[in-house]
């Protein structure tokens, strides 16, 4: 994908245009959505309706200029050196199966931020829980900024009793080149999972969490751990998936644009298309190998797992039908423990958007359900 707007001076001029557009548009949006009957959903607040529109505009900028926001993540890593950690690649023998290094894709160091502070290695209580969260972004946008991590970590601490949360920023496929396509990001998630375990926390006390494309990666890591006959790494105590992207195809943009929920989600379909073209092997121009397909697009590829799996979707998001179907497929596998939860008025990615949209009460209901489910799994 090539864009003239990704280059200066056109990028700068486009930014000026969008800022002016937003300033002019905001009063109109406030008037347009002043009545519940005029909002995408009557149950939505004015705040939710306006923010959805502004988020779509922001993603239009990202796609048009091919801006992945990685610079802001790196800036936050530098701003908070006391909470920053860089996970070195694990031993190469851990990257097996579809994660095998090749001439194009090699394991790399992965950076991230701890919340509220880094744990002291080897000083964990027997029942102390640690969360590893993988943020989304359609494989091409960075969401490892501190402001996003604070919301996720706060929810984990308040509702699930997590003492420390690590939010990792994996390699983005938007960086260009074959070395950032699948399985680069998945290699990174294994790297950071191994790093968390190396601190001495009990594996059963680790909660692996991921939203959107990050949920896809968290699920792929779980599949990888379960696919190893002689486990090279222990499994986590639980996995939480928030609006996971479970149907990743070469025509994802057009497919999701046709969804009956397209008018109530904050998902920009050209962003999904950019993501698939950047992430899929061969840019989506060739069929995905049979070995890789379940890891990339897990819908219709359920697997057996001993790890409790909590899956959430918003009733107003375009991923809803796929996420619910996948949860049902996983639940139908003998021995699996799966809980599917939904929030009727929520759009995409509740765990990342609840604070901005004023959905704290809705998140509390979901987290209470997750806590009860995971506690019964202990």
UniProtKB/TrEMBL annotation:
Alpha/beta hydrolase fold-3 domain location: 134-350
Short name of one Pfam family: Abhydrolase_3
Key word Transport present: no
Organism: Apiospora kogelbergensis
Family, similarity comment: Belongs to the 'GDXG' lipolytic enzyme family.
SUPFAM superfamilies found in the cross-reference section: alpha/beta-Hydrolases
Protein name per its UniProtKB record: Alpha/beta-hydrolase
Transmembrane segments: 12-31
PROSITE patterns, alphabetized: LIPASE_GDXG_SER
UniProt-recorded Gene Ontology molecular function terms: hydrolase activity
Keyword line: Hydrolase, Membrane, Transmembrane, Transmembrane helix
Annotated active site: 212
């Amino acid at each position: 994908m090539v864009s003239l707007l990704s280059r200066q001076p056109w990028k700068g001029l486009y930014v000026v245009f969008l800022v002016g557009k937003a300033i002019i548009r905001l009063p109109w949006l406030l008037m347009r959505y002043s009545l519940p009957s005029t909002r995408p959903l009557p149950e939505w607040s004015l705040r939710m309706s306006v923010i959805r529109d502004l988020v779509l505009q922001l993603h239009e900028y990202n796609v048009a200029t091919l801006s992945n926001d990685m610079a802001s993540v790196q800036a936050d890593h530098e701003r908070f050196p006391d909470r920053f950690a860089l996970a070195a690649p694990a031993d190469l023998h851990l990257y097996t199966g579809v994660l095998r290094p090749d001439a194009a894709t090699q394991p790399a160091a992965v950076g991230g931020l701890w919340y509220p502070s880094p744990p002291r290695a080897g000083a964990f209580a027997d029942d102390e829980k640690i969360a590893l969260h993988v943020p989304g972004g359609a494989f091409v946008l960075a969401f490892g900024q501190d402001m996003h991590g604070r919301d996720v970590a706060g929810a984990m601490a308040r509702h699930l009793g997590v003492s420390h949360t690590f939010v990792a920023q994996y390699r983005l496929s938007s960086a260009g080149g074959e070395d950032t396509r699948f399985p680069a990001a998945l290699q990174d998630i294994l790297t950071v999972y191994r790093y968390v375990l190396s601190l001495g926390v009990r594996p059963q006390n680790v909660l692996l969490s991921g939203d959107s494309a990050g949920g896809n990666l968290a699920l792929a890591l779980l599949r990888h751990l379960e696919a190893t006959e002689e486990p090279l790494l222990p499994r986590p105590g639980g996995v939480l998936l928030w609006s996971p992207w479970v149907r990743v195809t070469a025509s994802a943009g057009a497919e999701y644009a046709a969804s009956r929920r397209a008018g109530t989600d904050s998902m920009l379909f050209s962003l999904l298309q950019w993501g698939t073209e950047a992430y899929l092997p061969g840019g989506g121009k060739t069929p995905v190998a049979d070995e890789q397909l379940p890891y990339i697009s897990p819908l219709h590829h359920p697997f057996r797992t001993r790890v409790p799996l909590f899956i959430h979707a918003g009733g107003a998001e375009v991923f809803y039908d796929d996420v619910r179907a996948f949860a049902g497929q996983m639940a139908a596998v003998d021995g699996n423990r799966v809980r599917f939860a939904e929030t009727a008025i929520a759009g995409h990615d509740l765990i990342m958007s609840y604070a901005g949209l004023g959905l704290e009460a809705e998140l509390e209901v979901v987290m209470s359900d997750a806590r009860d489910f995971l506690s019964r799994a202990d």
